[in-house]
Write a structure and sequence with these properties.
Rossmann fold; seven-stranded parallel sheet; alpha/beta; globular
Length: about 575
C-alpha cells in the first residue's frame, strides 16, 4: 500500500514525496481513510507509530482556505508535543499556499497568539490550559470548528487536564469530527469517548518498532548552542570509521558540514537540494574512505547501507520513533556492531523516554568528553604518527643527519630540536586543549560567605515568600528583556511549572527572579546555561552584591519604581 491508495489529494501526496514518505504506517493506513470518510476515530497507538500524520493529513486535505476562523483544534498535553505537531502540519502543508498553523501554549506571550488569531488561522495546536484561557477571554472562536483531535489523551488526564478537556469539548460545535488518540484506554477516556464522540471507529495498533541489539544507544544532554562543540569533542574521542550525522533541516546539514571541514574533518552534506549525481558521489566517497562523515537529512539517507558506518549521531533528535529507528539502523547492519549518539536539549528529554517506551530498549546517558579525555586521545594519535614515521627507514636516516647537523652547529639538545619540529608539524592549532577553569571549593565558599556579609552590612533586599529563593540572572533592561521572556526561557529549559515563579524584578543590567528554594541540582545546572536574547543568564542565588565597575568601585543599581507584585504565569499550558 502507498499513500496514493488512501484517497489523499495531489498537493498532500506531493508534500509526502518531498519529505520522503513512501508507505503508510499501520495507524496511518487504518485511520486516514476513516477520517476522510467523516467518521470519528478512537485510536490506541504508542508515540512514534506515525499517528501525527494519521490525523494531520486528512485535516490538511479538507481545509477550506477561505475560512479565517479556526477549522481544526489539536489538544496536546505539553508545549513540546504541541510544537512538534505544529511542525508536522507545516511540513505536510508544504505544497498548499496560505495554510496558517498556530501553536498556543503557556510560557509564550499572549501578544503573538492574539495577533495571529486576529489575522486568521486554520489550525490551532495547543495545551488545554492556554486554550481555556483564550476561551475565557473571548479571543479564540471555535464556533466554526470542524475537526478536533485529542492527542495523547491519557497523558492529558495524568497531568490533571480532564476538566479542561471536557470544558473545551463542550464549547465546540456538535457537528465537529473528533479523533482521540491514546496509548492506554482508562475508564475516564472510555466514558469521554462515549459522551463526546459519535459512533467512533476503534483502531488499535500494536507497535513493532525495535532497534538492533548490536547498536549501543547513548544520548547527551546539551544546550542547542553547544551542539557543534559537543560534536567536535565526540569526534576526537570516539574511535569511528565512517559516520552519518543527522540534521533536521537542509540548512543545518550544510552548516554542520561546513564547520566540520573548517575543523579539519572530511565531511559532506546530502539533502534534498543536493543533486542526485553529487549524492551518489558523496556516498561512494564514504564507501571508499575518501570521506569520513556524511551530514544528512532523513530523506537523503533513506535506504543508505554503507559497511563503513560505525557511528550515527542525531545532531537533532527526531520527534518520532520511526525516524529514530530508521536513522540508527544505518549502522549495526548485518550483524555488525554500531554506535548511536543523540544530542538532546533539556526540553527534549521526553523524546528519549518516548523512544525507550516504543523500542523497549534503554538509552544510556553519556557525559560530554572532558578536556583531559580529549588530550589523552590527541597524545595517543600523536604517538601513533611518530611511530608510523619511525617505520620509514630511508627518510628517517636522511632527517637524522639533518638534525645531527643542527645539533652540532647550534649546541642544542636533540630533545629540544624534536620539540621544535613537533611545533612546526603541528602548525597554529595547539596539540592539547587548555584545562577547563574551575574555582577551588574553598575559594567558592569564602566568596559566598564574604558576599553574605557584605549583603547584611547594606541591609537585606525584600525577602522572597516562603519556600522561594531569589535568583539573579545577567539580563536586564538594557538587553530589552521582559518578564514573559524570562518565564518562557526558564520554564522551557528548566522544566518549571506555572506555580514555580514568584516576583520578577528587572533592573538595568540584571534581573531578580523568585524560584523554589528546593530546585533540583539538574534543573539548576540546565538553567545556568540558558540564554535570553542571546545572553547567557548566569543564574545564581542573589547575594545582594551589585556588579563591579571596571575601576573596582561597587555601586548598587537603584530602581525607585514600586515593587511589582509576585507574577504567576502559566508555563505548562
Amino acid at each position: 500500500m502507498t499513500f496514493s491508495d488512501l484517497g489523499l489529494s495531489e498537493p498532500v501526496l506531493k508534500a509526502l514525496r518531498t519529505i520522503g514518505y513512501e508507505t503508510p504506517s499501520a495507524i496511518q493506513a487504518a485511520t486516514i481513510p476513516t477520517l476522510l470518510a467523516g467518521r470519528d476515530v478512537v485510536g490506541m497507538a504508542q508515540t512514534g507509530t506515525g499517528k501525527t500524520a494519521a490525523f494531520a493529513l486528512p485535516i490538511i486535505d479538507r481545509l477550506d482556505l477561505s475560512q479565517k476562523t479556526p477549522q481544526a483544534l489539536v489538544l496536546a498535553p505539553t508545549r513540546e508535543l504541541a510544537l512538534q505537531v505544529c511542525e508536522a502540519f507545516e511540513k505536510y502543508a508544504g505544497h498548499l499556499k496560505g495554510v496558517h498553523v498556530l501553536p498556543v501554549y503557556g510560557g509564550q506571550g499572549y501578544g503573538v497568539q492574539l495577533s495571529a488569531l486576529r489575522r486568521g488561522v486554520h489550525i490551532v495546536v495547543g495545551t488545554p490550559g492556554r486554550i481555556i484561557d483564550h476561551l475565557e477571554k473571548g479571543t479564540l472562536d471555535l464556533s466554526e470548528l470542524k475537526y478536533l483531535v485529542l492527542d495523547e489523551a491519557d497523558e492529558m488526564l495524568k497531568m490533571g487536564f480532564a476538566e479542561d478537556v471536557e470544558t473545551i469539548l463542550a464549547d465546540t460545535p456538535d457537528t465537529k469530527q473528533v479523533a482521540l488518540f491514546s496509548a492506554t484506554m482508562p475508564a475516564t477516556i472510555r466514558r469521554m469517548s462515549k459522551q463526546y464522540l459519535n459512533d467512533p471507529e476503534e483502531i488499535t495498533v500494536k507497535t513493532k518498532t525495535t532497534t538492533s541489539a548490536s547498536i549501543a544507544q547513548r544520548y547527551l544532554i546539551v544546550q542547542w548552542q553547544q551542539k557543534m562543540d559537543a560534536l567536535t569533542r565526540i569526534l576526537e574521542v570516539e574511535n569511528f570509521d565512517g559516520m552519518i550525522v543527522f540534521g533536521r533541516t537542509k540548512i543545518v546539514t550544510e552548516e554542520i558540514a561546513e564547520k566540520l571541514r573548517a575543523r579539519g574533518y572530511s565531511a559532506a552534506a546530502i539533502n534534498g537540494d543536493v543533486a542526485q549525481p553529487q549524492r551518489e558521489k558523496s556516498v561512494n566517497q564514504l564507501k571508499s574512505g575518501k570521506l569520513d562523515i556524511l551530514v544528512a537529512t532523513d530523506v537523503a539517507a533513506r535506504g543508505l547501507d554503507v559497511e563503513r558506518i560505525s557511528h550515527v549521531v542525531n545532531f537533532d533528535i527526531p520527534t518520532d520513533t520511526e525516524s529514530y529507528v530508521h536513522r540508527i539502523g544505518r549502522t549495526g547492519r548485518a550483524g555488525r556492531s554500531g554506535d548511536a549518539i543523540s544530542f538532546v536539549t533539556p526540553r527534549e528529554r521526553g523524546l528519549v523516554r518516548a523512544i525507550e517506551r516504543a523500542t523497549r530498549q534503554e538509552l544510556t546517558e553519556m557525559q560530554l568528553p572532558s578536556v583531559d579525555e580529549v588530550n589523552v586521545t590527541r597524545l595517543s594519535r600523536f604517538d601513533d604518527r611518530i611511530t608510523a614515521a619511525l617505520a620509514e627507514n630511508e627518510r628517517i636516516d636522511r632527517f637524522r643527519d639533518i638534525v645531527a647537523h643542527y645539533v652540532r652547529n647550534n649546541d642544542v639538545p636533540e630533545v629540544d630540536v624534536a620539540a621544535a619540529l613537533a611545533i612546526v608539524a603541528q602548525g597554529d592549532t595547539p596539540l592539547l586543549l587548555e584545562p577547563e577553569p574551575e574555582r577551588p571549593a574553598r575559594e567558592r565558599r569564602e566568596r559566598t560567605e564574604r558576599d553574605g556579609a557584605e549583603r547584611s552590612d547594606r541591609g537585606e533586599r525584600r525577602a522572597p515568600r516562603e519556600g522561594f529563593a531569589t535568583y539573579r540572572i545577567a539580563v536586564g533592561r538594557r538587553h530589552r528583556v521582559e518578564p514573559r521572556q524570562i518565564v518562557g526561557a526558564l520554564a522551557n529549559e528548566g522544566g518549571l511549572r506555572r506555580d514555580d515563579f514568584g516576583a520578577i524584578k528587572i533592573q538595568p543590567d540584571f534581573s531578580l527572579v523568585e524560584l523554589p528554594s528546593d530546585l533540583p541540582k539538574d534543573a539548576l545546572a540546565r538553567l545556568a546555561d540558558t540564554r535570553i536574547s542571546g545572553q547567557l543568564i548566569d543564574l545564581r542565588l542573589d547575594t545582594g552584591r551589585s556588579p563591579r565597575r571596571t575601576d573596582g568601585e561597587q555601586r548598587t543599581f537603584r530602581d525607585d519604581r514600586p515593587e511589582r507584585k509576585p507574577r504567576h504565569t502559566r508555563t505548562d499550558g
